[in-house]
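Try this one yourself first.
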């Protein structure tokens, strides 16, 4: 029976959830042909912090592992993300974390920005079908077949809405205030940000928009400043920890970049407020959800100007968790339509949590663990408090 998965393919980070556990890792692909890294038994391992796969005869390092060990690592930021097979490699690499059988049949709900929904059919065509992947863990190799018969693509921000109004058993929280009225969602990503509107529980595309503005523009400015003042050349994907900590090492010495970071991100928030006000009559909105990988970063700049706004619970993973909730909701409905012989809905993937683990800017989490902090998601404060 197919297994429900919620998968958020962010430009900055991949977020994936199956109702039991979730993983977050940077959207970075690196070549693995120059040899696989060898553990010396010191660092802590988690599934997504040591993500290595082989696909179509090529070896790849993904996420934090690619950043640390690949000579040719990159984070694709083009609108179509058509750099080689990067999108497919990241998609399959994420699913391989849940491939525990020889043949694994997944029902995946994922999202595209509202302004990119015209690409949904092509996206599904690229990924539907059977894929043979080899997962590397330490010195062992495990070949798996990933079968994708059902892939549902939805407007990206509605995942955060579902994360609020559906529980992880696919049940509607009947008394939730977001089920009625006019709800705005500001989903701040790495490369783009999305504005979406839900009116009385219905997605309203006429009040939705994607803008090419995200926290990656802050990374570009920070990288330029570091180059100008310190001669430090850094790729964007290597700046995650420095931005989170508000500190970068130059010649082995720490340099504080909190003031620089806050000034740059404050400017980005101002531009997003201009976009929101140009499209929405803010006073008409009963609630506004701030979400996404950049949501927690920019929340403190946005909320004073949006009194009805709230930060989504665990905003980095909200879309992925909501996609899973929606997949499970649909699976329950299908099981009910087919009758008792279709099997217990629990087999679709709902269940209890497992132990959480963390590794660098990569993390794993168990459902119900709301204290987790992923790379790119920590709460930035003007004082530099982490």
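Now uncover the answer:
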């Amino acid at each position: 029976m197919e297994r429900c998965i919620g998968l958020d393919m962010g430009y900055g980070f991949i977020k994936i959830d199956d109702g039991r556990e979730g993983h977050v890792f940077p959207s970075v692909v690196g070549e693995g042909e120059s040899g696989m890294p060898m553990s010396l038994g010191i660092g802590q391992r988690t599934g997504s912090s040591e993500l290595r796969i082989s696909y179509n005869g090529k070896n790849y390092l993904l996420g934090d592992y690619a950043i640390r060990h690949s000579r040719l690592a990159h984070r694709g930021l083009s609108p179509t993300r058509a750099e080689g097979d990067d999108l497919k490699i990241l998609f399959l690499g994420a699913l391989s974390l849940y491939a525990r059988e020889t043949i694994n049949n997944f029902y995946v709900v994922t999202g595209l920005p509202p302004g990119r929904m015209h690409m949904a059919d092509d996206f599904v065509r690229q990924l539907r079908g059977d894929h043979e992947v080899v997962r590397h863990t330490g010195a062992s190799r495990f070949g798996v077949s990933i079968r994708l018969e059902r892939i549902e693509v939805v407007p990206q921000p509605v995942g955060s809405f579902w994360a609020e109004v559906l529980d992880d058993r696919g049940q509607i929280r009947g008394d939730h205030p977001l089920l009625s009225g006019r709800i705005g969602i500001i989903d701040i990503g790495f490369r783009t940000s999305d504005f979406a509107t839900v009116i009385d529980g219905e997605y309203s595309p006429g009040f939705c928009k994607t803008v090419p503005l995200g926290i990656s523009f802050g990374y570009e400015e920070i990288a330029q400043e570091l180059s100008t003042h310190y001669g430090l050349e850094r790729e964007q994907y290597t700046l995650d920890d420095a931005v989170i900590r508000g500190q970068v090492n130059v010649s082995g010495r720490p340099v504080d970049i909190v003031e620089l970071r806050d000034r740059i991100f404050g400017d980005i928030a101002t531009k997003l407020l201009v976009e929101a006000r140009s499209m929405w009559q803010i006073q008409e909105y009963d609630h506004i959800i701030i979400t996404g990988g950049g949501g927690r970063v920019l929340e403190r700049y946005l909320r004073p100007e949006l009194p009805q706004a709230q930060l989504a619970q665990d905003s980095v993973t909200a879309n992925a968790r909501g996609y899973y909730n929606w997949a499970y909701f649909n699976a329950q409905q299908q099981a009910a339509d087919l009758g008792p012989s279709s099997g217990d809905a629990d087999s679709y993937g709902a269940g209890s949590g497992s132990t959480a683990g963390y590794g660098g800017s990569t993390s794993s989490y168990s459902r119900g663990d709301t204290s987790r902090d992923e790379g790119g998601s920590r709460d930035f404060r003007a004082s530099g408090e982490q």
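Discussion: The domain at 3-159+317-366 is CATH 3.30.420.40 (Nucleotidyltransferase; domain 5). The two ends are 43 Å apart (CA to CA).
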